[in-house]
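Write out structure tokens for Oil body-associated protein 1A.
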Amino acid sequence: MDVTAGPAAAAVVRGVAPLPREPTQTSTMLVEKAAAVLQSFKPINRIHCHLCAFHFYAYDMSRQVEAHHYCTHYNQDMRQCVIFDSPEADARLIGVEYIISEKLFDTLFDEEKKLWHSHDYEVKGGILFMPRVPKALEQKELEEIAKTYGKVFHFWHFDKGDTLPIGPPQLMMAITADGQLNPELAADVERRFKVSFKENAKYRKDIQGPDKGVHPLANYWRTGKGLAPVLREVDIA
């Protein structure tokens, strides 16, 4: 499926309307500085790497966004990542992703597997990368990532111009083949981070994906059916 136009092009423009806000008060900044000295930030301090990739809405491939993952290696079989729209200090926290090994993915029931996507193509296709990390060091991390599966929800749909996280979280998916990534979005990221996806792909040609191959229930959108979480009112138990 080729994606060359449509709403995804808007995601290239990062100048989303600014948050409605007032300047942070001096008293607030003083409290924050004191708290930073006194409190522990152990979960945040465990973040070990920054990955840049692309996500699209599980029901609409034309809505593609740049996604900066800051990941904690929870254990050998699981990573947990907080996702921002950029690596800048004023970045929006837009979602979370859980990344698990093939071994853990195989334990999931079939309906659950449909919510997950593979990382095989993202790595081998060169479009997932670690900004400013030398290729040799990056390679070691990506050799592991290529065998994994991810489940990701975005809370802030900034590609629509939302200035706040409006509506329910949305399930996201990842690119799985050539021709799917919006070329304008790709070119913008390559320019800003001084990377070449084509060169990345050449360097990674020997990386292997899941040992059993990508599971047929992952990347469920490829069946032609999208997955769109919606809220519904129910009686309180």
